[in-house]
Design goal:
- This protein is mainly alpha-helical.
- The chain contains seven helices and three strands.
- It has one domain (11-182): Rossmann fold, CATH 3.40.50.1110.
- The protein has helices spanning 10-18, 33-47, 51-71, 94-100, 107-127, 136-139, 163-182, and strands at residues 28-29, 78-80, 132-133.
- It has a three-stranded parallel beta sheet with strand order 1-2-3, sandwiched between helices.
- It starts with 9 loop residues before the first helix and ends with a helix.
- InterPro entries: SGNH_hydro_sf.
- This is SGNH hydrolase-type esterase domain-containing protein.
- One of its GO terms (molecular function) is hydrolase activity, acting on ester bonds.
- It comes from Methylobacterium terrae.
Length: 183
């Protein structure tokens, strides 16, 4: 929502499809690794504000959008945790990694910020009676505490999670929400 390099204008596109509220839809808001792995750090550096200030500004923007969706008439909005960073320390390939080269924070620090971000999102979801899904614990390598190689894309130039392996975790987590709503 606050990506300075957004090429897609995704927020405007999503909003045009989500509002006014559609009675047959339940929005699921998925943040990418870019939110904690790049934007907060980049804005803190470029704007001269601390990471902490950017963390809360990002959370407030995200939860503010959730509030807009609820106010527009959605009875339920599902929030998901941001996924852990995928770009490893010193990685030097592709346009995305090159754009993020300006952020020199280690993957361990970026992962720790993701944990903090997700805890704040979970709290925000609970305060709004919204379901919250976070698959981060399943994605991490217990030995390193960062994203397990198993969940990285097989394409070394792709900074996204492995779609089938991570997709299975997302499907299971989202299905648990549906199952608990039915009971």
């Amino acid at each position: 929502m606050r990506n300075p390099n957004s090429q897609t204008h995704a927020l405007e596109i999503f909003s045009s499809h989500l509002m006014p509220a559609r009675p047959d839809a339940i929005p699921v808001l998925q943040l990418g690794e870019v939110d904690c792995g790049f934007v907060i750090w980049w804005r803190a550096d470029k704007l001269g504000e601390g990471v902490e200030a950017q963390l809360y500004a990002s959370i407030n923007a995200h939860l503010g959008y959730v509030d807009q969706l609820i106010a527009s008439g959605y009875s339920q909005v599902v929030l998901t945790g941001a996924v852990p960073p995928t770009i490893q320390d010193g990685q030097d390939w592709g346009e995305i990694a090159n754009m993020r080269r300006e952020v020199t924070t280690s993957i361990a620090e970026r992962t720790e910020l993701t944990h903090r971000y997700n805890a704040l999102l979970k709290n925000g979801a609970q305060n709004r009676n919204c379901p919250f899904v976070d698959i981060t614990p399943a994605l991490l390598d217990p030995a390193t505490g960062v994203l397990a190689d198993h969940y990285r894309s097989d394409d070394p130039n792709d900074h996204h999670l492995h779609s089938a392996r991570a997709g299975k975790l997302w499907a299971e987590a989202l299905n648990r929400i549906e199952a608990s709503a039915a009971t």
